[in-house]
Every structure is written in structure tokens, then in C-alpha cells.
Amino acid sequence: MYICKVLDKCVSTIKDDGLKGYSLLKLQRIDKFNMDSGEVIVAVDTLGCSIDEVVLVTVGSNARFALRDADVPVDAVIVGIVDNYNSK
């Protein structure tokens, strides 16, 4: 699971049927000190996140289960919005 900051929306006019109804967001991974890690990923937004929010992202095969459909071809899904966290 990663902590990421939402950078922007990712528009896709054609996508897999299992992704219809979901937005895609461009995310910047951040470390525990709230510094960017240099890695940018695209994730499925299941919550309706806004730009600049800090979110929790699950990746790999677990991401498909977050959509409740193991046949959807996804690698990253936003599963939570972070209100705050201790960076110590």
C-alpha cells in the first residue's frame, strides 16, 4: 500500500468495460516525510478524490479486489483518503 498525493485527473475516452463509471487519477507517491518519491502512477478512483488530496493506494492483485471484480485489469486503486498522519 502506498501514500500518494493526487496530481491531476487522467482522461480516458476508451477503457475496459470493468472500469466504466470510475475516474482515473495521476498520483505522486510520497514518503513518510511528505516528500515526493519521484514515482508517478495512475490509479482508479473509487472515492471521488480531489486534486492535492493525500490518499491510500493498494496495488497489485489486491487492487482488483478493491473493485469487487477480479477480472478488471487494474494495478492501482485508491482505497482511502488520508486526513492526517504522524511523519515521525
Task: Describe the protein.
The mean pLDDT is 89. This protein has one helix spanning 61-66; strands spanning 2-10, 23-30, 36-45, 54-59, 76-81. The chain has a single domain (2-81), classed as Beta Barrel (OB fold (Dihydrolipoamide Acetyltransferase, E2P)). A 5-stranded mixed β-barrel has the order 1-2-3-5-4. Helix content is 7%, strand content 44%. The two termini are 18 Å apart. The chain contains 1 helix and 5 strands, in the order ββββαβ. The protein has 88 residues and is mainly β.
Please specify the SSE layout and strand pairing.
Elements: E1 2-10, E2 23-30, E3 36-45, E4 54-59, H1 61-66, E5 76-81
Parallel strand pairs: 3-5
Antiparallel strand pairs: 1-2, 1-4, 2-3, 4-5
Summarize the structure.
The chain has a single domain, classed as OB fold (Dihydrolipoamide Acetyltransferase, E2P) (Beta Barrel), CATH 2.40.50.220. The protein contains one helix and five strands, in the order ββββαβ.
Mind telling me which CATH architecture this is? Beta Barrel
CATH first level = Mainly Beta
Low-confidence stretches: none
Described by the principal axes of the CA atoms, the overall outline is globular
**Distance from first to last alpha carbon:** 18 Å
Q: Give the rounded overall mean pLDDT.
A: 89
Query: What is the count of β-strands?
Result: 5
The main pleated sheet reads as: 5 strands, mixed, barrel
SS element count, helices: 1
Oligomer classification? single chain
Q: Given the helix and strand composition, which structural class is it? A: mainly beta
- Beta strand %: 35-45%
Considering the protein shown, what is the CATH homologous superfamily?
EutN/Ccml
**Widest beta sheet: strand line-up:** 1-2-3-5-4
SSE arrangement, N to C: EEEEHE
- Helical content, roughly? under 10%
What is the CATH fold-level name? OB fold (Dihydrolipoamide Acetyltransferase, E2P)
